[in-house]
Amino acid sequence: MPPRKKAASSADSKMFVLDTNVLLHDPTSLFRFEEHDICLPMFVLEELDDKKKGMTEVARNARQASRFLDEIVSDAPHKIEEGISLQSENHKNSTGRLFLQTEFIKNELPANMSQGKADNAILAVVMHLQRTQPKRAVILVSKDINMRIKARALGLEAQDYFNDKVLEDSDLLYSGVMQLPEDFWDRHGKNMKSWQKDGHTYYQVSGPLCAAFFTNQFVYKEDDTPFYAVVLEQNDKTATLRTLTDFTHSKNNVWGIAARNREQNFVLNLLMNPEIDFVTLLGQAGTGKTLLTLAAGLLQTLETKLYSEIIITRVTVPVGEDIGFLPGTEEEKMTPWMGALEDNLDVLNKSDEEGGDWGRAATRDLIRSRVKVKSLNFMRGRTFLNKYLIIDEAQNLTPKQMKTLVTRAGPGTKVVCMGNIAQIDTPYLTEGSSGLTYVVDRFKGWEHGGHVTLMRGERSRLADHAAEVL
């Protein structure tokens, strides 16, 4: 290696060999390794070339990765063998270098491993680098579990690509709810101010717990006098709490639906608050995410006319075998994916007993005229004005897709994302790297956003028991 490379290796910089699936998952991964160097085997470049055709997310990422590589290589004033600097105006933290495979590597692998396979060719490059640079850590980075297992079986170091992981453990994810300790009022009641406004009671408290609060976080205390409130403002020493509207009472029902538990009450307080533009809901099957969201949407669209229409979209990832192409318009193609919408509309429509069958049919037609089902594929470039946008099954979105969707919101639009991060059907996405986990973590504490993790299922005793034991 040239002298300048030796200087770099002595500074404990590592050499990361990237598998193709890392670039297809995140094209910006080229700039995520800071002071460490990156090597791309020739097979990775060939696989990028094979994947670039089409309109899928993978093809788009392949083209973007190729464009990044073109910018890096075309700016290089010296030989490729010496490595090309990754640092630029937009990527100042990337102080490492990019190495491309420039020589043919022969007979590095055991004889029983097929030589023509792309995975094995990449492993051969890792082995070659490890042999030629024994004092340096050479690490394979791949999203493919089997590839990492093969690498370790050959005595090579291999890692998953973690840069897009929001959390190592999903149990650490912000829940949006905090239980207050028994001695909360004793420790935070000194110099407390309290006042009433618009049917709510406000408390300004000071104490050590205030620093742990987030804006729009729900706090509760269940003892002889239950206390439920939301944090309106907070800093290190003080916080302002406001009591909630009690949606568990039938007089405050939302389109005939009353909250059945504490978390559902918190959810309806978020959904019915016009100051909240972005709501995220997490919870297992049957906790009421879709029903509560639709009920709040219908009330604010048809009765208070706060929004002009409800738009529902979801990721079309099949659980079993794909049923193939579907005929019809965009709405008709999306209908089979929207069984949850139909089921919930049936429940919401049953509350209209006075009008009989004719009244229910008329109400259903009115509701259907205000509820639009859209495909994710046609969202780019759109702007939604005064809409109530529901993103269902959001756990199957990547952070990039989530950004594309949430940035569609124009003035007066409310976005509700809901899902269950324990039910991810998209390849390469985990609980830690899901777009839903990403937005929950990034939006916590924003004054116009709120989050609740629903704990208790309300679908049926069968569904609750199945969720626990299966």
Produce a short descriptive summary:
By secondary structure, the protein is α/β, with parallel strands linked by helices.
How are the SSEs placed, and which strands pair?
Elements: H1 3-10, E1 15-18, H2 20-25, E2 37-40, H3 42-51, H4 57-74, E3 84-85, E4 97-100, H5 118-132, E5 138-141, H6 145-153, E6 157-159, E7 177-179, H7 184-188, E8 193-197, E9 200-206, E10 218-221, E11 227-234, E12 238-243, H8 262-271, E13 278-283, H9 289-303, E14 309-314, H10 330-334, H11 339-350, H12 356-370, E15 371-373, E16 387-392, H13 399-406, E17 414-419, H14 435-443, E18 449-454, H15 461-469
Written account of the structure:
- There is one protein chain.
- With 470 residues, this protein is of the alpha/beta class.
- The protein folds into three domains: 3-159, 5'-nuclease (Rossmann fold); 173-243, Ribosomal Protein L25, Chain P (Beta Barrel); 253-469, Rossmann fold (3-Layer(aba) Sandwich).
- Helix content is 33%, strand content 19%.
- The chain is built from 15 helices and 18 strands.
- It has helices at 3-10, 20-25, 42-51, 57-74, 118-132, 145-153, 184-188, 262-271, 289-303, 330-334, 339-350, 356-370, 399-406, 435-443, 461-469; strands spanning 15-18, 37-40, 84-85, 97-100, 138-141, 157-159, 177-179, 193-197, 200-206, 218-221, 227-234, 238-243, 278-283, 309-314, 371-373, 387-392, 414-419, 449-454.
- It has a six-stranded mixed beta sheet with strand order 3-4-2-1-5-6. It has a six-stranded mixed beta sheet with strand order 7-10-11-12-9-8, with no helix packed on it.
- α6 (145-153) links the parallel β5 and β6 (157-159).
- α3 runs antiparallel to α5 (118-132).
- It starts with a helix and ends with a helix.
- The relative contact order is 0.10.
